[in-house]
Amino acid sequence: MSNKIKWGVLGGGGDSLIGVLHRVAASMFDAYQLTGAVFNPDVHVSLAFAKQIGISTDRIHANLDDMIAAELARPEEDRIQVFSILTPNFLHFPMAKQLLEAGFHVICEKPMTMTYEEALELQKIQQKNENIFGLTHTYTGYPMVRQMKQMIANGEIGAVQKVDAQYYQGWINPLIHDQEQRATTWRLNPEKSGISCCMGDIGVHAYQMLEYVTGQKVQSILADLNHLYADNQMDIDGTVLLRLGEYTKGVLRSSQIATGEENNFTVAIYGKKAALKWEQENPNYLYLLEEGQPLRVLKPGHGYNSEFSLDGTKLPPGHPEGIFDAMGNIYKGVAKAIRGEKFHEGEFPGMTDGVRGMNFIEKSVQSHRDGNVWVTLES
């Protein structure tokens, strides 16, 4: 009998941009078995997709209610253990809530919920039921991001003085200038996306990354957002000033109208002794800067890297790893947690990251709305 974790998927069907990413990631390390799904609101589409990717249709269901009822009717050893939620934002909270209350573990795309209030409610449910909850801030799975985190924790760059994160995309630029065209994307519909587009979609990645690698919490922010058109309800660009402490400050820049940019996510942490820089589009290079010294480039798979970094490296040095591998490392961490195995702190983002992320999104909108003023994040 297979000892793989039985895994279910909500969303992520044939027209999903992220479905294949999650399926490939879950197949790494031979930890999961795709067992059942609701790929699409139309069960016929779900069944057809299941046949297309070669999985049994016995546990393909029309909706989540039917899926949960059918799984709970099975012997515990035969039930799906964890579900991935790969749907649009507005479905994350109700689906996660229902799954956690039914006793299942959850892996969820970000943002975790539509509101900070929902995030707090979900946190209480998870704490009560002691479920494993993973949030796919995918970039934390890169080996050199993990190396960056470990080096900062070890004090190798000294006390952190300044942080700088940039996440620039240009994909909305062809749509935003035409009122009819911009109505075609759910990202610009607050009923499906939430109160923020840019900060809610990619700005929150940069925010979470800064807290992840530094091990520090952002205490207060000042945001200046851009909607570009008066009739566009959602931010598509913005700059946020950050205070992590009295003498530790920084900036977060995020845009979906940075013309020609693809997925330009960069993080720089400046310490008293040295600095570290990482770029998502070249993820296998971590740059170490020191006063009076030549630039050093650290790469994955080498013995000089931390145990944490090496644990997320699958190939020998010189063999590039990418976004599938990063997501695979997050799935690997969740699998360890489900099995009760020892895992590194930071192997997968979780409920706290989701709660803090939603707080950041709402406070960014509040800061901008109230006249670009400093607001305090909840602790």
From TrEMBL:
SUPFAM superfamilies hit by this protein: Glyceraldehyde-3-phosphate dehydrogenase-like, C-terminal domain (SSF55347), NAD(P)-binding Rossmann-fold domains (SSF51735)
Gfo/Idh/MocA-like oxidoreductase N-terminal domain mapped to chain residues: 6-135
Listed GO MF terms: nucleotide binding
UniProt xrefs under InterPro entries: Gfo/Idh/MocA-like_OxRdtase_N, Gfo/Idh/MocA_oxidoreduct, GFO_IDH_MocA-like_dom, NAD(P)-bd_dom_sf
Domain GFO/IDH/MocA-like oxidoreductase stretches: 145-276
Matches recorded under PANTHER family: CONSERVED EXPRESSED OXIDOREDUCTASE (EUROFUNG), OXIDOREDUCTASE
Protein name: Predicted dehydrogenase
Species whose genome carries this gene: Dokdonia pacifica
